[in-house]
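quick one
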Amino acid sequence: MNDLAGKHIVLGLTGGIACYKAAELCRALIKEGASVQVVMTAAAEQFITPVTLQALSGRTVYSSQWDAREPSNMPHIKLSREADAILIAPCSADFMAKLLHGRADELLSLMCLARPIAQVALLLAPAMNREMWAHPATQRNVAQLMADGTTVFDVGSGDQACGETGDGRMLEPSELLEDVIAFFQPKSLLGQHVLVTAGPTYEAIDPVRGITNLSSGKMGFAIARAAREAGAEVTLVAGPVSLATPRGVARVDVISAQDMLQAVQDKAATATVFIATAAVADWRPAHAADHKIKKDGSGATPSLNFVENPDILATLAQSARGQSRALYCVGFAAESHDLLANAKAKRARKGVPLLVGNIGPATFGQDDNALLLIDESGAKELARASKLVLARKLIVEIAIRIKAGVRA
Ligand code: C5P
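structure w/ cytidine-5'-monophosphate:
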């Protein structure tokens, strides 16, 4: 992916042991398509050398406001104006205090103050000891910086270099990368609460066997990530899959269709959008055996009786309509043939405004997909692309329809 293609980022390092993670972050930003100009404070140079960051970024590192390489001798003006964002990682407690007061006695803080505030975002990745992070002065500074329009990313929790355990670690480079990518996505779902189901369900036959399907959950997880990037609060109800939870998404793990319905109903009251990507088992064994069903050597096979599972999507769409509640419901159809006709029929049967068709065998477990969107005005194709790219496009399509006032 090239999610940061065309973006120019000033990566600022301030004094903290997390400087070692900034090297990996620099590399990750560049791999994602960004160009990176590193600026370091004198304290940061105590932890990592400019040589490392120069090699990784492919640009000489700046650390002094008196750097004579700029013909104008004003690096704070030039470097801050050409950036899409200044990302300070790690950002120390002391540096946040400086930013708060608009101090500008070295290059990095000078650049933050001199940047055109409406065009160049300021993103901070705090990193410090847990007591320093919890201190009222730091928390006050964070609140004020956010009120001033600065984006302050979360801190991680766990073992700290000082030997203590708690909140204040800098996020991992992969987490910061996801947050930076999300920052640049359009915020088309601000104020919405999106509930997503994903993955297969597993219907027990006995304690060691069950019925499931080949759904990987990747499409639903990508949709949850895209909805979060678009500014929504997101709850992801996931069947048994081993995928990483997208950043900032609340995840509820379930096993069976009945568990999934329960989890969805628990969260539905505050949801404004419901996207059902899960491949829910249509049937479950009428009775799951308490003990493992044994072969008895006679060649006799067990016979299974099935009952139909609840239709989660249809249930939610119907109850929202019954309560005249604004819940925009989106269904998925994984078909093996006749996608258009089957998806149209499914849209009517489920009673949802938008039905997204895909060819199941061509997408299960894959990283890419192609989608066919069916709504009241017809069909629209989203051509084959990665699931995350398609998820972002689908979120935009949903946002357009919500804005136009279409409801379940
Ligand atoms: O009926 P079918 O399984 O083909 O419908 C697919 C759509 O309905 C998907 O959006 C799926 O998540 C949803 N569904 C559901 N509960 C079921 C079966 C399907 O929510 N029991």
